[in-house]
Design a protein that fits this description.
single chain, 660 residues, alpha/beta, Substrate Binding Domain Of Dnak, Chain:A, Domain 2, Rossmann fold, 3 domains, six-stranded parallel beta sheet, globular, binds Fe(4)-Ni(1)-S(4) cluster, oxidized
């Protein structure tokens, strides 16, 4: 094994303090034994910047950076801090926050745009590799896009009769309208009307209905340029437009069109953690976000020709596993295994068993190329938006017009690399079983009791108090906190208090690794009410709804709960709360803000870069409640964090007159 030379000054992380996940602890120890540096070590060696952490470093022009940390003694009297141009800490932090929303919304939405483009190509039959799988969902979505699903024709008797339209015609019109949502300049995004009526009316009244996805993102970039928007209230308002354009359009369209092309998730079994890798097989990890690529690699890796080719290289088969949100996508639709969540990406390579790590966009750490150099792993980039500088990575560009062909090239590259393993792999014998795939459609079916197509029985259980409320716990890992620890503590606290948990992203994976995604876990972790519901229905107490763009499913599930009746008129009336305990990406800020603007109390762990601007913080944490019924909050201690969520749930129960 080739090693990276660690300098004396570099600190080494203590594996047992770095994660609560056994596979991670074992592989971190192996990395250190192999003298391979990882993010866990770097997080100790390099401390974050105190001013940036507070959100008050301004680098929007070249007269700075102007740095405005809170004074050591706190603010006495009037806050006189200002940048060279006079920008207050509030303006600076609001601008920085807004740019995080813009980047996050752009990432989700550009993913969505790619999906819409492929969808349109599939509808026009320009590609053989993608098609329409979920016709029912297509017809539902067509209604939202105001695309007719039937036509009036004359029959032989000369009477006008209604006839179903060709589904590919419908799909084409849906595709055109969906793609149009990005460049729309005026009016409203179609899906705004999917929200409960009261919410839609409130957005209109507040003038925050997104006009077009791209426009709102561009407008953030304009407003936050030097010398433009200088009222943090107004900047936050634009954050709402752009974030809603992410949650209710960019992400939601991605989810819907992916479901139509690849199938809407329904409960399926899967396995998770580094133990899913196999020493005697070719191991391919697909890492990133877009199922357009991974769906094709799924097909290619099961191709008999590829399997036969793998045998010629001495491998007993091909194992395809996912990492980060790509993993969630192929898991919820095909039950394919997950190797791990965000902080495990370097460690997967450290096993020495990964023959190729195939990446597309988002959450891919640059350092995987360095780690790969220490073993034999080939890092394959696939997206022209996301290349790597390292001469040690291969770029195989993925094009939807010959998707399967590209996927086969990628798989072949991995197989060819199998004989190059430098040492006996060391795969931790750690993996868990889980049941995943709870789309809002699946929740309706499973919690619908005898009324399979309804959320009413779920609402009844919330009203009678067996279920105290709903917690949406989502988001990343963060190297500044112990891996998975806050995720699990918070989820377990919620379960103990009869709060059912909806999850996506890396939280979903943390829960999977800890065995919380099994129906059996209900008896172990839940309060009596929630345990009874889960046992009766046979579902896990934590419902895995998919990837980060699938947070849009949580919005729709909340909307379904409102529409089923008995729990108020708006999302903000629901006994529900959102959380991202270990967030790190800008996407998380966009998600957080669209939940807030949709009426959800949303609490983050780790820290929020607004603490250096007290008036902005007050606006986000308190004043927004009066405007949207939802607001931001921050709590690093996981027990307190869960307590605050439960307190909000109880406040909403009381307002609904429950538990009297
Ligand atoms: Ni998109 S955004 S680390 S993979 S959840 Fe995981 Fe999820 Fe955050 Fe990234």
């Amino acid at each position: 094994i080739k090693v990276t030379a660690a300098s004396k000054k570099e600190k080494k992380a203590n594996p047992k303090e770095s994660s609560v996940d056994q596979a991670t602890i074992q592989m971190l120890a192996k990395a250190q034994a192999d003298n391979v540096e990882t993010i866990f070590d770097r997080a100790l060696t390099m401390k974050p910047c105190n001013i940036g952490e507070q959100g008050t470093c301004c680098k929007t022009c070249s007269q700075g950076p102007c740095r405005l940390p809170l004074p050591k003694k706190g603010i006495e009297g009037v806050d006189t801090r200002k940048g060279l141009c006079g920008a207050t800490p509030e303006t600076i932090a609001a601008r920085n926050f807004a740019r995080m929303v813009a980047a996050g919304a752009a990432a989700h939405s550009d993913h969505g745009r790619g999906v819409a483009e492929v969808f349109l190509a599939a509808a026009r039959k320009e590609t053989e590799d993608y098609g329409i799988q979920d016709v029912e969902k297509l017809l539902e979505v067509a209604v939202d896009f105001e695309v007719p699903t039937t036509v009036m024709v004359e029959n032989e008797a000369g009477e006008k009769v209604e006839q179903e339209r060709d589904i590919y015609k419908i799909a084409e019109e849906v595709g055109v309208k969906a793609l149009g949502e990005w460049g729309k300049q005026e009016g409203e995004i179609y899906y705004a009307k999917r929200a409960p009526e009261a919410r839609y009316e409130l957005w209109k009244e507040l003038d925050v209905v997104p006009r077009g996805i791209d426009r709102e993102i561009v407008e953030i970039m304009h407003r936050t340029h030097m010398g433009v928007d200088q009222d943090y209230h107004n900047i936050v308002k634009q954050c709402s437009r752009a974030a809603l354009g992410d949650g209710w359009a960019g992400s939601m369209i991605a989810t819907d069109l992916q479901d139509i092309m690849f199938g809407t998730p329904y409960p399926i079994q899967g396995e998770i953690n580094l133990g899913v890798l196999k020493a005697d097989e070719v191991n391919i990890i697909v890492h990133g976000h877009e199922p357009l690529l991974s769906e094709m690699i799924v097909v290619a890796s099961q191709d008999p020709e590829m399997l036969a080719y793998a045998k010629t290289k001495g491998a007993h088969g091909i194992t395809l596993a996912g990492m980060c949100c790509t993993a969630n996508e192929i898991l919820v639709r095909h039950g394919l295994p997950i190797a791990g969540n965000y902080l495990q990406q370097e460690l997967a390579i450290v096993t020495g068993a990964v023959d190729a790590m195939v990446v597309d966009v988002q959450c891919i750490m640059e350092n995987i190329a360095n780690v790969a150099d220490c073993y034999h792993t080939k890092v394959i980039t696939t997206n022209p938006r996301a290349m790597m500088e390292s001469g040690h990575t291969v770029h195989i560009e993925f094009d939807e017009h010959h998707a399967l062909e590209d996927a086969k090239r990628i798989v072949k590259e991995a197989i060819d690399n199998f004989p190059n393993r430098r040492a006996e792999p060391l795969i931790p014998n750690v993996k868990e079983k889980m049941v995943v795939g709870f789309s809002q459609e699946a929740i309706k079916y499973h919690l619908g009791g005898t009324f399979r197509g309804s959320y009413v029985p779920l609402n009844d259980n919330i009203i009678n108090g067996r279920i105290r409320g709903i917690g949406g716990v989502v988001g990343c890992n963060n190297a500044r906190t112990c891996h998975d620890s806050a995720h699990l503590t918070i989820v377990k606290e919620l379960l103990k208090n009869d709060v059912i948990v909806l999850t996506t992203g890396c939280n979903a994976m943390a829960c999977g690794k800890a065995g919380l995604l099994t129906p059996e876990s209900a008896a172990v972790y839940c309060g009596p009410g929630l345990a009874e519901v889960c046992e009766t229905v046979g579902i896990p107490p934590v419902l895995h709804m998919g990837s980060c763009v699938d947070n849009s499913r949580i919005l729709m599930a909340a909307t379904q709960v409102v529409k089923a009746g008995g729990l108020g008129k708006d999302i903000s009336d629901l006994p529900a709360a959102g959380s991202a305990p270990e967030w790190m990406s800008e996407k998380a800020i966009s998600i957080g803000h669209y939940f807030v603007a949709s009426g959800v109390y949303t609490i983050f762990g780790v820290g929020l870069p607004v603490t250096g601007a007290p008036r902005l913080q007050k606006h986000l944490f308190e004043e927004l409640e009066d405007i949207y019924g939802g607001m931001w909050d921050l709590e690093v201690d996981p027990y307190e964090h869960a307590k605050k969520m439960i307190a909000h749930i109880d406040k909403k129960r009381a307002a609904l007159g429950l538990d009297k």
